[in-house]
Design goal:
Number of helices: 11
Radius of gyration: 22 Å
Number of domains: 1
CATH superfamily: MetI-like
Distance between the termini: 30 Å
Largest sheet: none
CATH architecture: Orthogonal Bundle
Mean pLDDT: 87
Structural class: mainly alpha
Strand content: under 5%
Length: about 280
C-alpha cells in the first residue's frame, strides 16, 4: 500500500501538507522570533516588519509566533483525542462485530441512541455538565464521536468474519482472540487508517469551533480557533487577524482529508452499514 500512496498525487500532496504542519509543531520553539504569550500594548496592531513578520495583535503579541505555536496546540490536542477515540471505537467495534448477539445489540443500541443527536449538541451538553476548559472539551469530543467510528469498524469486522480465511482459522483451532487480532485486525487496518486521517481534520475543526465560541482553549493561548474567536471583534478593522489562523486550520484539515480520501480510494474502503 505504501507504493500506491507514494504514486498517488492526492496522497503525496496531503502528506506534504501534513509534514509541514508536523514540522512546524515539533520545531516551533526554534522557528519563532518572539514569545507567543507576551505582548506589549504599545506595540499593538503593528504592521509587518523584520521583528514581527506578520505584525502584532490587539495585545502587541507577535502574530507569526502565535501561528507557529498554534500548530503545536492544535495538533497536540487533536492527536491524543484521536488516539483515545480510536482505541475505544476499535475495541467496541471488533467485539460487537465479532461476537454479535446480545453484546452487539446492546453496544449498537448505545451507538444508535448517541448518533440520533448531532455531535455538536452532545459536546455542548457535556461541556455544560463538566464545565468549560480543556479537560471538559477533550472528554466531550471523545464521547461525541467514538460511536461513529465504532459502527464503521463493526461493519468491517462483520464482513471479514464471514470470509473463508476466518472459517479456515476456526477449523485450525485458532482462539477468538487470535482470530480477532491476528487475522481480522490487519484486514480492517485500512479502514481504521482512513478514519484516523479524516478524523484529525474533524477534531481540529471541532476544537477550533468551540474555542471560537469561548468554550474550549483559553483565549490567551496561541490556538488557532481561540485566535479566530478573539479576532472576530476586529473583523472589519483588522481582518488579517482572522484570515491567518483560519488559513492555518484550512491548510491542516485539507492535508489530512486529502490523505484520508486517497487511502480510501487506494484501498477501496466501503463504509456502508452491513447487517447480519
Amino acid at each position: 500500500m505504501i507504493k500506491k500512496i507514494v504514486h498517488n498525487r492526492q496522497a503525496v500532496i496531503g502528506l506534504i501538507l501534513i509534514s509541514v504542519v508536523l514540522f512546524t509543531a515539533i520545531f516551533s520553539p526554534i522557528l519563532v522570533f518572539n514569545d507567543p504569550l507576551k505582548g506589549r500594548l504599545e506595540n499593538r496592531f503593528l504592521d509587518s516588519s523584520s521583528e514581527y513578520p506578520l505584525g502584532t495583535d490587539q495585545l502587541g503579541r507577535c502574530i507569526y509566533s502565535r501561528l507557529i505555536f498554534g500548530a503545536r496546540y492544535s495538533i497536540g490536542i487533536a492527536l491524543p483525542i484521536l488516539l483515545v477515540t480510536m482505541i475505544i471505537s476499535f475495541i467496541i467495534g471488533i467485539v460487537s462485530g465479532f461476537y454479535g448477539g446480545l453484546i452487539d445489540r446492546i453496544l449498537i443500541g448505545i451507538c444508535d441512541i448517541a448518533m440520533a443527536f448531532p455531535p455538536i449538541m452532545i459536546v455542548l451538553v457535556l461541556i455544560g455538565a463538566l464545565g468549560q476548559g480543556m479537560e471538559g472539551l477533550v472528554i466531550s469530543i471523545i464521547i461525541s464521536i467514538w460511536v461513529w467510528n465504532a459502527k464503521i469498524i463493526r461493519s468491517a469486522v462483520i464482513v471479514e468474519k464471514n470470509k473463508n480465511y476466518i472459517i479456515a482459522a476456526r477449523i485450525d483451532g485458532s482462539s477468538n482472540l487470535k482470530i480477532m487480532f491476528k487475522h481480522i485486525t490487519p484486514n480492517v487496518a485500512s479502514q481504521i487508517l482512513v478514519l484516523m486521517s479524516l478524523g484529525v481534520g474533524d477534531i481540529i475543526i471541532m476544537i477550533s469551533s468551540f474555542s471560537f465560541l469561548g468554550l474550549g482553549v483559553d483565549s490567551t493561548l496561541p490556538e488557532w480557533g481561540a485566535m479566530v474567536g478573539v479576532a472576530k471583534k476586529y473583523i472589519y478593522s483588522r481582518p488579517h487577524l482572522i484570515v491567518y489562523p483560519g488559513f492555518c486550520i484550512l491548510f491542516t484539515v485539507i492535508g489530512f482529508n486529502l490523505l484520508g480520501e486517497a487511502i480510501r480510494d487506494i484501498c477501496d474502503c466501503g463504509y456502508g452499514e452491513h447487517n447480519e
